[in-house]
Structures are given as C-alpha cells and as structure tokens.
Amino acid sequence: MPLAHSAASLTLMAHTHHAHTHGHPHGTPGHDQPDAGSMATLLDLDAAVTGHYLDDVADRIEGLSPRPARIIDLGSGTGTGTLALARRFPTAEVVALDNSTDLLERVAAAASRDGIADRVRTVTADLDSALPAEVCDVDVAWASSTMHHFADPGALLSSTFAAMRPGGVLAVVEIDELPTFLPAGTAEGEVERRLRATANARHWNAHPDWSSTIAAAGFDLVDTADIVTHIDNPPGTSRDYAAFWIGRARDGLADEIPDDDRAVLDRLLGDGPTSLAARDDLVVQARRVAWLARRPA
Ligand SMILES: C[S@@+](CC[C@H](N)C(=O)[O-])C[C@H]1O[C@@H](n2cnc3c(N)ncnc32)[C@H](O)[C@@H]1O
User: Fold this and answer.
1) What is the pLDDT of residue 136?
2) Does 6 reside within a domain?
3) 3-state helix, strand, coil in the chain (%, to 5)
4) CA-to-CA distance for 76 and 104, rounded, in angstroms?
5) From atom 1 of ligand 1, which residue's Cα is the shortest distance away?
6) What mean pLDDT is reported for the chain?
7) For the segment 236-292, what is each residue's pLDDT rounded down to a tens digit?
8) Cα(first)–Cα(last) distance of the chain, in Å?
C-alpha cells in the first residue's frame, strides 16, 4: 500500500472556505499543502475512480453550448476537466489555468499523449481574485473542486463573467460528500463513516452554496445538479484511492481518532487479510454538486 502513509496532507479535502476567509494559505511555507506529485496522484486517482461526473456535467454544458470555441479550466490541476472537455468539444481550444507550473506541465504532457496539444493551452496564473486580463472570448468556464480554494471567488467570477461571450456557460463543481469505500453496516464501514464525520466537523473540503455568488457576478443560474457516485465492484484503482484518502485522513485527523478506530484504519492500510488490498467488497460512494449558469445573451 505505497500511497497510504504519504506525509503530505489531503488538500483536496483539507482546504476549507473558512480557512481562506482568515488568511491566504496558498503556497504559504509550512501550510498543509501537498507537494505537486501527491496532489497529482490524488487528482488522477479521483478522476479514474469517480470521473463519471465529468461526462454528466459535460452533457449539461453541451445542452447549453453545443459548439464552444474557447473553454477555460479555472484551477485545472492535472487537467482532468481540461482533457474531458477537449475530448467532448473537438473543435474547442481549452485553456488550463493554475498557479502550479508543475501541475500545468502534467496537463501539457497529457494533452500531447492524447494528440490534442494543438488545442490545449496552459497558463500559469494566480486566480485568487481575477482572471489574467488577456483571457477573453470565453464560451465555457469550468471550475471543479477549486472555487473554495480562491481567496475572493466573487471577484474571480465577476472577471470571468466579463471575459465571457454573451450566452457563455459557467460550470462550478464541488465535492459535496467526501468518498467512502467500505460497505455501510460493516465494522470498518462504520469506522470510515466516523472518520468522514470528523473530517466534516473540521470543515475539510467545505464549500458554500455558490448560487448567490454566481448570481451576484451577473450570471443566470440555470441548473443545480446532484451527482451521486455509487460504484459496486469498482476497478482496482479504487484500492489505491481508498488507501490514499483513508491514510491521509488518518494522519491529518490523528488527534481526533479514537484508539480503537485507529487500529482498524491501520489494519485497513496494512497488508494483512483485513487490509484494503485484500478486500473484494469495496463500494465507492461520494457525491458532487454542479452549478450551471450562463452569461445572459
Ligand atoms: C483540488 S484541485 C482541483 C483540480 C482540478 N480542477 C480537478 O478537478 O481535478 C485545486 C486546484 O486549484 C489550484 N489552485 C489553488 N489555488 C489557486 C490559485 N490561487 N490560483 C490558481 N490555481 C489555484 C491548485 O493548484 C489545484 O490544482
């Protein structure tokens, strides 16, 4: 289980909106930031296991904007959304924006591997309060698991609105329920659910309902979608994702986990007969929420 005890913390889950209202944690030395390699692993595992949401949201975007010419991905990470949208809209240029050059290099490499480097552009940018001025004529703006990271999401959405063509579509996605991997009703499943409750109580991955921020930026909200993940018999990568998530939560919440629960988590993360690696009963459950909005024509 090589991923389980990575020292870096689970930023996807650990960054909170609350934290951002009291400071500016991005890139702060010593802050709970994983290195880019850990972040990339996490994002790629998340996409490999729960990536069906990409098709779901892309369907909804396509219904509103069938042939976008320019798409932007706000906080692209490794390019999960960038690449999914580039595949879905084969004539679109997709611009991946992030403040991590390392992650953007991964986007560019993935685009080359997919043979779409000519349509995928990467831009290093701090999106805390605005888009870079040169970004314009946008037909679709995508922000998945990122909006709660930005210091001033309202200002960023206002500048996104200004950069969009009339009729352009905004899609904001957040993880609404952190993932679980063990079946409910089992002892391990109950431990995992307590772990998630502890993470929720610590505001891991907390995000507001973005509806009013989206509307205040000038957009018309057209749809809010609950996207449920429930995968019985998930692919093998789910074990790696489970180990990554459970290991990081175990380490990040160490002080708040009862000893009995920690012992169960350690067994899951170990290599014995009750470890994640040995189990064939994993069930991946999670939930995302997506807000779809348009700039009025
Ligand atoms: C949880 S990841 C989500 C990545 C991707 N959208 C996905 O769904 O896989 C958050 C991303 O936002 C980026 N990010 C965080 N703060 C940022 C900022 N102020 N400016 C630009 N990017 C930022 C991080 O580097 C990271 O790639």
Assistant:
1) 98
2) no
3) 45, 20, 35
4) 8
5) 12
6) 89
7) 999 999 999 999 999 999 999 999 999 999 999 999 998 999 999 999 999 999 999
8) 52
- What radius of gyration, in Å, describes the C-alpha atoms of the chain? 19
Q: Note whether residue 47 is domain-resident.
A: yes
Nearest protein Cα to ligand 1, atom 11:
75
- Note the pLDDT tens digit of each residue in 84-112: 999 999 999 999 999 999 999 999 999 99
Q: Domain holding 209: CATH number?
A: 3.40.50.150
Name 75's Cβ contacts closer than 8 Å, sequence gap at least 6: 97, 98, 127, 143, 144, 145, 146, 149, 150
SS3 230: strand
What confidence score (pLDDT) does residue 156 get?
98
The residue range of the domain holding 278 is 11-294
Residue 17 within any structural domain of the chain: yes
Mutation to probe ligand 1, out of 16, 99, 148, 288 (largest number of atoms < 8 A from CB): 99
- Kindly report the pTM of this predicted structure: 0.89
d(CA 210, CA 230) in angstroms, rounded, equals: 24
Specify whether the CB–CB gap between 60 and 129 falls below 8 A: no
- What residue ranges line ligand 1, CB within 6 angstroms? 12, 26, 43, 75-77, 80-81, 98-100, 103, 126-128, 144-146, 149-150
Count: domains in the chain: 1
Over residues 177-226, the pLDDT tens digits come to: 999 999 999 999 999 999 999 999 999 999 999 999 999 999 999 999 99
pLDDT class of 33 with cuts at 50, 70, 90: low
For 161, the token pair is 């609105």
Assign residue 120 a region (left: φ > 0; alpha: ψ between -120 and 50; beta: otherwise): beta
Is residue 32 assigned to a domain? yes
